[in-house]
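INTERNAL AUDIT FORM
Audit reference: QA-55
Scope: verify that the stored structure record matches its stored sequence.
Auditor: D.O.
Record contents follow.
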Amino acid sequence: MKTIITDNIECEYKNMIAAFLDTDFIMQKILQSYPNLSGAKQKSVSEDIRFYVNQGLELYSVSDTSVNTIPLTLFYSLNNFVKAAYLLRFPNLSLAGSHGLDLKTNELEKCNSLGEIPVHFTQKGTFPNLMEVTKDKFNLTDVVVLKDLFSVFPELCGIYSLIYSEEPNVFLLQAKTGDIGTYNVFYETDDEEAILKKNTSLLDENGYHMYIDKNYLGLRGELLLTADSWGKEENVIYYDSYGNKYCTVGIEVANKIVKPSKVCILYIFYYVFSMLVRYHPHLWMKYCNSKDVSIISKLMTTVKNISLIEVIQLLCDEKYIFTSKIADIEKDFDYSDILKNILKEVERENRRLGKSILLNYI
């Protein structure tokens, strides 16, 4: 992960994306993956990528209009950026024509809120192309519900808990000073019972173990990383646009737990919003006049302003943190230290339960 120091974050990531308007620069990127691509193919694909990036930037620049038009320009802006990223990664392949997602009118009419909307994946289209780039683990026969996606998007966790009165499926973390591989976990609610019922198998199987405690200070959590977590951060960790770290328990889709990438989630959000505005305006206005407007406004303003961070990461195949100052960078984990911390935790727990300290080492 790279840290970009800047006094104007939005200007910085726009400037980085603008590098992809240079066909020579694009060709260099293509040749890193496909050195044997023919000269004619290099030229044609580079020009296509430049076109999609340029159109994406132009559509993004005119997305500060009204709630009835922003969804259209935002979605088609992101759609173009995804096409560019796909061709950068797979210049020898062709793009599919459709969006790769579908909404069923009969299902939409039964939805009482935005979060109830089910989204269907299709076998071909831009979304399956995006999944090839991000390596998301959706099955294309799956159906995902918007509320589930709201629950794991870091920038929405506060609004999610407000309008649904429940704990989201993503939790803000803070590294414990002097305690390597251990984090404080911050919850949005004090609903201990509901948090304890969450399926933490995604965390556990990746070497991340979350513990919950409630005392006079309120509900708190602790995340402990074991040696099994090495190289698995991508499976359970999100970052917001400011570099804050979150863990997630994921969402259940077709009886399996998945962690969708942020750019795939945004693609789905903006697709749904654009389709509602264009083909189901009565439903769009209904949601805009309900508590759902909190999420709509957040995604159309604050999240819209940082969506290009996801785009530059997609184009460069690199993770970035944009900040105005140098933050403390976490040290690489020393797993001998982590083991010591684990043994200390076991010792504390055994003492609390009155067990023999010999059990600490069994």
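Auditor finding: record pair retrieved intact. The two ends are 38 Å apart (CA to CA).
Action required: none
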